[in-house]
Amino acid sequence: MQRYLLTAVLAATVATAVITPFSLPALPNLITSPKTSSTPFPLGAARHPSRICVVDPEATDAGPALISAAHDCNNGGTVVLLPDTTYTITSPTDLTFLQSIDILILGTVVFSDDVEYWQTRAFGYAYQDVHLFWKFGGRDVNIYGLGIGTLDGLGQTWWTAKRSNETLYRPVLFGTDGLAGGSVSGLNMKNSPFWFNVIMNSNDVLITDINIWIEVTNSSSPPANTDGWDTYRSINIVIQNSTINNYDDCVSFKPNSTDIIVQNLQCNGSHGISVGSLGQYQGEYDIVEDVYVYNISMSNASDGARIKIWPGVPPNTTGSSSGGGAGYVRNITYELFHNTNNDWAIELTQCYFASSQEACNAYPAVLLIEDILFKDFYGTTSKRHDPRVGTLVCSDPSVCKNIRTENIAVSPPSAATAEWICTNMNEGLLDINCVAA
Ligand SMILES: *[C@@H]1O[C@H](CO)[C@@H](O)[C@H](O)[C@H]1NC(C)=O
Ligand SMILES: *[C@@H]1O[C@H](CO)[C@@H](O)[C@H](O)[C@H]1NC(C)=O
Ligand SMILES: *[C@@H]1O[C@H](CO)[C@@H](O)[C@H](O)[C@H]1NC(C)=O
Ligand SMILES: *[C@@H]1O[C@H](CO)[C@@H](O)[C@H](O)[C@H]1NC(C)=O
Ligand SMILES: *[C@@H]1O[C@H](CO)[C@@H](O)[C@H](O)[C@H]1NC(C)=O
Ligand SMILES: *[C@@H]1O[C@H](CO)[C@@H](O)[C@H](O)[C@H]1NC(C)=O
Ligand SMILES: *[C@@H]1O[C@H](CO)[C@@H](O)[C@H](O)[C@H]1NC(C)=O
Ligand SMILES: *[C@@H]1O[C@H](CO)[C@@H](O)[C@H](O)[C@H]1NC(C)=O
Ligand SMILES: *[C@@H]1O[C@H](CO)[C@@H](O)[C@H](O)[C@H]1NC(C)=O
């Protein structure tokens, strides 16, 4: 097997040695399937099979070793993290200079769990206080793990630390910032301190064959905010063929996510595939547009398909994160959605955190929702809201346009007829059994 060859040939090599000739486990032929994006991904440049830079397995801090290997192999080579090796990153690792390079992760990457150290050292972003241990950016980059490579966030330390400081920064396990073209595939990701993945300021990226899970060892300090993926200010991203076992959004589309396909995912225990929340901040303009969510198996979740929008607020409301932000959510399709034991099969709200429906109606959302289709939904919800299986709540018909359902066959666990809460909806476009809240 190639992986043993790798171990044998490379075990004794020093950092970033250039080895020839050598048979490198190739980047698999990654196909966007079954749906393909309207803008095809750009073709990457050819790689030189003999340009291989091994990340020093002995480095006490794998961060600088990884950066140095990436510099040596930039423009056409492949960086390799050896199998049966644990690489520990103990300092912020900026990999945003990448250009036509592949990174093959066969070992395990962990990040030191020195919570205090990372508070001031992690790469920080204003948006939702996102922090990163490492960040990937550049052009034409493939990060692949062949189902062997693992990223381990040592999350329990962070979830425990959170109990004594709710606002401490917990880094996202994997993040791109300014990645144009490329892929992330075949990686195992476990125990992220916070979200598992954030895709920011990126375009034309295929993400496939990722396995995400959480192991809690201290049940009195459970995980929090463990989203599978969040997309932000990104265009033409495909997330597919992956399994996600977590406790927050399976995938979440944050402001300015456009041309996104999410397909063939198996999500368990999550908060669903979510647009938003959006419209939280006055003076900001959020867009989520042209999103296709196809063939999702969702189990044990609070929600299946979810769109969460903050209502409007009285003019010049100051202080807490209260809503009133502008923008639009447009052309979103959820098709082929299998529900097992989810509390709501669909939850659309334009009254997110509103104190009451009356308060929400009085200040309708400023953020428009239009051209939304929920199609071919199957399965059974949990008994939580039985006989209700979903909820569609707008703040005013004028800001909620062309929201449709088609072939919705979701049942509650009892034998009762499924009921849907519909508020301020154009019920002529809905083929579901609407009831008042
Ligand atoms: C909690 O963590 C934040 C972020 O590191 C820090 O600014 C704040 O001082 C911490 N609070 C306490 C009480 O330690
Ligand atoms: C488990 O979590 C609790 C609550 O945060 C904490 O008091 C305790 O120290 C943790 N136990 C360990 C072994 O970390
Ligand atoms: C991705 O798809 C292939 C076959 O199409 C399958 O063998 C593999 O297990 C899938 N991976 C995940 C994580 O679902
Ligand atoms: C999103 O795009 C709109 C329109 O270009 C822009 O006004 C807004 O600032 C962008 N928001 C973010 C978070 O980039
Ligand atoms: C849906 O995804 C599952 C994997 O979760 C896969 O086995 C199945 O073939 C997919 N169906 C379609 C129609 O693509
Ligand atoms: C799904 O999540 C539940 C907890 O919510 C867990 O008990 C179960 O083992 C998970 N399933 C898989 C396949 O990991
Ligand atoms: C809606 O989005 C899909 C991608 O999800 C795209 O193919 C289609 O062209 C978009 N429709 C319009 C009218 O823009
Ligand atoms: C849902 O949760 C139950 C109970 O925790 C578990 O047995 C089941 O395997 C989960 N479903 C999936 C698909 O993981
Ligand atoms: C809101 O505040 C802005 C400037 O802070 C002011 O120009 C505007 O008149 C105020 N609007 C209302 C309705 O009070």
Can you give a write-up of this model?
The protein is mostly beta strands and about 425 residues long. It folds into two domains: about 80-240, Single-stranded right-handed beta-helix, Pectin lyase-like (Pectate Lyase C-like); about 250-435, 3 Solenoid (Pectate Lyase C-like), CATH 2.160.20.10. About 10% of the residues lie in helices and about 45% in strands. The chain has five helices and 28 strands. It has helices at about 1-10, 60-75, 115-120, 155-165, 355-360, and strands at about 50-55, 80, 85-90, 95-105, 110, 125, 130, 135-145, 150, 175-185, 190, 195-200, 205-210, 210-215, 230, 235-245, 250-255, 255-270, 275-280, 285-300, 305-310, 325-340, 345-350, 365-380, 390-395, 400-410, 420-425, 435. It has a 26-stranded parallel sheet that branches. Residues about 1-20 have low confidence and may be disordered. One 2-acetamido-2-deoxy-beta-D-glucopyranose binds next to strand 16. Its EC number is 3.2.1.67. One of its GO terms (molecular function) is galacturan 1,4-alpha-galacturonidase activity. This is galacturonan 1,4-alpha-galacturonidase.
Q: Write out the distinct hetero groups bound to the structure.
A: 2-acetamido-2-deoxy-beta-D-glucopyranose
Strand content: 35-45%
Tally the helices: 5
CATH class of the largest domain: Mainly Beta
Compute the separation of the termini in Å. Answer: 60 Å
Structural class designation: mainly beta
Radius of gyration: 23 Å
Assigned CATH superfamily of the largest domain? Single-stranded right-handed beta-helix, Pectin lyase-like
Annotated CATH architecture of the largest domain: 3 Solenoid
Query: Helical content, roughly?
Result: 10-25%
Largest β-sheet summary: 26 strands, parallel
CATH topology of the largest domain: Pectate Lyase C-like
Specify the overall morphology.
globular
User: How many β-strand stretches?
Assistant: 28
Please tell me the overall pLDDT: 94
Low-confidence stretches: 1-21
How many discrete structural domains?
2
Pfam family, one: Glyco_hydro_28
Protein name: galacturonan 1,4-alpha-galacturonidase
GO molecular function: galacturan 1,4-alpha-galacturonidase activity; polygalacturonase activity
Catalytic activity: [(1->4)-alpha-D-galacturonosyl](n) + H2O = alpha-D-galacturonate + [(1->4)-alpha-D-galacturonosyl](n-1)
